[in-house]
What we know:
The protein has 210 residues and is α+β, with helices and mostly antiparallel strands. It is built from 6 helices and 9 strands; from the N terminus they run E-E-H-E-H-E-E-H-E-E-H-E-H-H-E. It has one domain: Maf protein. 28% of the residues lie in helices and 26% in strands. Helix 3 crosses helix 4.
Amino acid sequence: MFLTRKPLILASGSPRRRELLLRLSIEFSVMVPAIDETIHGNESPEQYVLRMAQNKADAVAAEFSDSWIIAADTIVILDGSVLTKPESSAAAVDMLMRLSGREHEVRTAYCLRNRAEEVCISDSILTTVWFHGFDEIWAQSYAATGEPLDKAGGYGIQERGGVLVERIDGSYSNVVGLPLTELVDLLVRHGVVAAGSKPETRGRGGGKTQ
Protein backbone atom coordinates (compact mmCIF):
# COMPACT_ATOMS: atom_id res chain seq x y z
CA MET A 1 0.00 0.00 0.00
CA PHE A 2 2.89 2.36 0.78
CA LEU A 3 6.46 2.60 -0.44
CA THR A 4 9.12 3.74 2.00
CA ARG A 5 11.29 6.48 0.49
CA LYS A 6 13.57 7.43 3.39
CA PRO A 7 15.25 5.52 6.24
CA LEU A 8 12.62 4.98 8.92
CA ILE A 9 13.03 3.69 12.47
CA LEU A 10 10.28 2.68 14.87
CA ALA A 11 11.41 3.61 18.37
CA SER A 12 9.34 0.97 20.10
CA GLY A 13 9.49 -2.67 21.12
CA SER A 14 5.72 -3.06 20.81
CA PRO A 15 4.76 -5.92 18.48
CA ARG A 16 1.37 -4.27 18.02
CA ARG A 17 2.88 -1.08 16.62
CA ARG A 18 5.12 -3.10 14.32
CA GLU A 19 2.13 -5.05 13.03
CA LEU A 20 0.13 -1.89 12.31
CA LEU A 21 2.91 -0.49 10.12
CA LEU A 22 3.64 -3.81 8.43
CA ARG A 23 0.01 -4.12 7.35
CA LEU A 24 0.53 -0.95 5.31
CA SER A 25 3.70 -2.40 3.70
CA ILE A 26 5.80 0.32 5.35
CA GLU A 27 9.43 -0.73 5.72
CA PHE A 28 11.31 0.22 8.87
CA SER A 29 13.88 -0.93 11.37
CA VAL A 30 13.31 -1.14 15.12
CA MET A 31 15.27 0.43 17.96
CA VAL A 32 14.00 0.17 21.52
CA PRO A 33 15.02 3.26 23.53
CA ALA A 34 15.80 3.07 27.22
CA ILE A 35 14.20 6.04 28.97
CA ASP A 36 12.94 6.92 32.43
CA GLU A 37 9.15 6.50 32.38
CA THR A 38 8.49 8.01 35.82
CA ILE A 39 5.47 10.29 35.95
CA HIS A 40 6.29 13.77 37.24
CA GLY A 41 4.07 14.91 40.06
CA ASN A 42 2.84 18.05 38.31
CA GLU A 43 2.14 16.45 34.93
CA SER A 44 -1.27 15.92 33.41
CA PRO A 45 -1.80 12.59 31.61
CA GLU A 46 -1.55 14.38 28.25
CA GLN A 47 1.71 16.10 29.20
CA TYR A 48 3.15 12.82 30.43
CA VAL A 49 2.34 10.78 27.32
CA LEU A 50 3.64 13.51 25.01
CA ARG A 51 6.89 13.71 26.96
CA MET A 52 7.32 9.95 26.74
CA ALA A 53 6.88 9.91 22.95
CA GLN A 54 9.26 12.83 22.49
CA ASN A 55 11.89 11.34 24.81
CA LYS A 56 11.77 8.03 22.96
CA ALA A 57 12.21 9.77 19.62
CA ASP A 58 15.05 11.94 20.93
CA ALA A 59 16.90 8.94 22.35
CA VAL A 60 16.98 7.16 18.99
CA ALA A 61 17.56 10.34 16.96
CA ALA A 62 20.70 11.01 19.00
CA GLU A 63 22.23 7.89 17.43
CA PHE A 64 20.63 8.07 13.98
CA SER A 65 20.44 11.75 13.12
CA ASP A 66 19.76 11.23 9.39
CA SER A 67 16.91 8.77 9.86
CA TRP A 68 13.26 9.49 10.38
CA ILE A 69 12.07 8.29 13.77
CA ILE A 70 8.56 7.28 14.81
CA ALA A 71 7.94 7.06 18.54
CA ALA A 72 4.71 6.58 20.46
CA ASP A 73 3.39 6.05 23.95
CA THR A 74 -0.07 4.88 25.03
CA ILE A 75 -1.79 5.36 28.36
CA VAL A 76 -5.17 4.44 29.81
CA ILE A 77 -6.89 7.13 31.89
CA LEU A 78 -9.57 6.43 34.48
CA ASP A 79 -11.01 9.22 36.61
CA GLY A 80 -8.12 11.47 35.58
CA SER A 81 -5.42 9.01 36.70
CA VAL A 82 -3.03 7.04 34.50
CA LEU A 83 -3.30 3.25 34.59
CA THR A 84 0.09 1.78 33.75
CA LYS A 85 0.96 -1.83 32.89
CA PRO A 86 -0.01 -4.16 35.75
CA GLU A 87 2.93 -5.73 37.55
CA SER A 88 1.18 -9.01 38.36
CA SER A 89 -1.94 -11.02 37.56
CA ALA A 90 -3.50 -9.81 40.84
CA ALA A 91 -2.82 -6.19 39.85
CA ALA A 92 -4.34 -6.88 36.42
CA VAL A 93 -7.52 -8.27 37.99
CA ASP A 94 -7.81 -5.23 40.25
CA MET A 95 -7.31 -2.90 37.29
CA LEU A 96 -9.84 -4.73 35.13
CA MET A 97 -12.46 -4.66 37.87
CA ARG A 98 -12.02 -0.91 38.16
CA LEU A 99 -12.72 -0.64 34.43
CA SER A 100 -15.67 -3.08 34.38
CA GLY A 101 -18.94 -1.49 33.28
CA ARG A 102 -17.34 1.94 32.90
CA GLU A 103 -15.89 4.22 30.29
CA HIS A 104 -12.25 5.23 30.19
CA GLU A 105 -9.92 7.07 27.86
CA VAL A 106 -6.98 5.84 25.83
CA ARG A 107 -4.50 8.49 24.76
CA THR A 108 -1.63 7.75 22.41
CA ALA A 109 1.05 10.35 21.76
CA TYR A 110 3.24 10.11 18.68
CA CYS A 111 6.37 11.92 17.58
CA LEU A 112 8.00 12.16 14.15
CA ARG A 113 11.64 13.18 14.50
CA ASN A 114 14.52 13.87 12.14
CA ARG A 115 17.46 15.50 13.84
CA ALA A 116 19.40 16.42 10.69
CA GLU A 117 16.40 18.22 9.18
CA GLU A 118 15.35 19.72 12.53
CA VAL A 119 11.91 18.12 12.41
CA CYS A 120 10.13 17.28 15.64
CA ILE A 121 6.35 16.98 15.39
CA SER A 122 4.27 15.50 18.16
CA ASP A 123 0.63 15.28 19.12
CA SER A 124 -1.73 12.97 20.96
CA ILE A 125 -5.04 11.39 20.07
CA LEU A 126 -7.84 10.48 22.48
CA THR A 127 -10.27 7.58 22.14
CA THR A 128 -13.06 6.80 24.60
CA VAL A 129 -13.64 3.12 25.39
CA TRP A 130 -16.61 1.53 27.18
CA PHE A 131 -16.27 -1.85 28.92
CA HIS A 132 -19.35 -3.96 29.45
CA GLY A 133 -19.90 -5.15 33.00
CA PHE A 134 -18.19 -8.39 33.97
CA ASP A 135 -17.44 -10.18 37.22
CA GLU A 136 -14.16 -11.10 38.86
CA ILE A 137 -14.19 -14.59 37.34
CA TRP A 138 -14.02 -13.01 33.88
CA ALA A 139 -11.15 -10.76 34.99
CA GLN A 140 -9.25 -13.66 36.56
CA SER A 141 -9.76 -15.81 33.48
CA TYR A 142 -8.37 -13.08 31.22
CA ALA A 143 -5.47 -12.28 33.56
CA ALA A 144 -4.54 -15.99 33.60
CA THR A 145 -3.70 -15.76 29.88
CA GLY A 146 -0.81 -13.40 30.72
CA GLU A 147 -1.98 -11.01 28.04
CA PRO A 148 -2.66 -8.02 30.34
CA LEU A 149 0.86 -7.83 31.79
CA ASP A 150 2.51 -5.89 28.96
CA LYS A 151 -0.40 -3.58 28.19
CA ALA A 152 -1.42 -0.22 29.60
CA GLY A 153 -4.70 -0.59 31.43
CA GLY A 154 -4.27 -4.35 31.54
CA TYR A 155 -5.97 -5.27 28.25
CA GLY A 156 -5.39 -5.51 24.51
CA ILE A 157 -8.37 -4.59 22.36
CA GLN A 158 -6.92 -6.37 19.31
CA GLU A 159 -6.47 -9.65 21.17
CA ARG A 160 -8.54 -11.56 23.75
CA GLY A 161 -9.24 -8.33 25.59
CA GLY A 162 -11.54 -7.26 22.78
CA VAL A 163 -14.27 -9.37 24.41
CA LEU A 164 -14.34 -6.90 27.32
CA VAL A 165 -15.03 -3.88 25.09
CA GLU A 166 -18.62 -2.81 24.48
CA ARG A 167 -17.88 0.09 22.12
CA ILE A 168 -15.40 2.85 21.35
CA ASP A 169 -15.65 6.46 20.22
CA GLY A 170 -12.65 7.44 18.10
CA SER A 171 -9.68 5.74 16.46
CA TYR A 172 -9.36 1.98 16.88
CA SER A 173 -5.67 1.94 15.91
CA ASN A 174 -5.09 4.59 18.57
CA VAL A 175 -6.27 2.11 21.21
CA VAL A 176 -3.98 -0.56 19.75
CA GLY A 177 -1.06 1.85 20.11
CA LEU A 178 -0.55 3.98 16.99
CA PRO A 179 -2.96 6.55 15.48
CA LEU A 180 -2.39 5.54 11.86
CA THR A 181 -4.41 8.24 10.09
CA GLU A 182 -2.52 11.13 11.64
CA LEU A 183 0.89 9.47 11.59
CA VAL A 184 0.78 8.24 7.99
CA ASP A 185 -0.41 11.67 6.86
CA LEU A 186 2.75 13.15 8.43
CA LEU A 187 4.98 10.52 6.80
CA VAL A 188 3.47 11.25 3.38
CA ARG A 189 3.77 15.03 3.78
CA HIS A 190 7.46 14.71 4.61
CA GLY A 191 8.14 12.30 1.78
CA VAL A 192 9.06 9.44 4.07
CA VAL A 193 6.47 7.15 2.49
CA ALA A 194 4.31 7.39 -0.62
CA ALA A 195 1.19 5.58 -1.71
CA GLY A 196 1.99 2.76 -4.11
CA SER A 197 3.19 -0.80 -4.30
CA LYS A 198 6.30 -2.60 -5.47
CA PRO A 199 6.24 -4.02 -9.01
CA GLU A 200 5.39 -7.69 -9.06
CA THR A 201 8.39 -9.96 -9.51
CA ARG A 202 8.10 -12.27 -12.52
CA GLY A 203 9.96 -15.48 -13.22
CA ARG A 204 11.89 -16.20 -16.38
CA GLY A 205 8.87 -17.67 -18.07
CA GLY A 206 6.87 -14.48 -17.51
CA GLY A 207 4.60 -15.93 -14.83
CA LYS A 208 4.25 -14.52 -11.35
CA THR A 209 6.57 -15.95 -8.75
CA GLN A 210 4.90 -17.37 -5.67
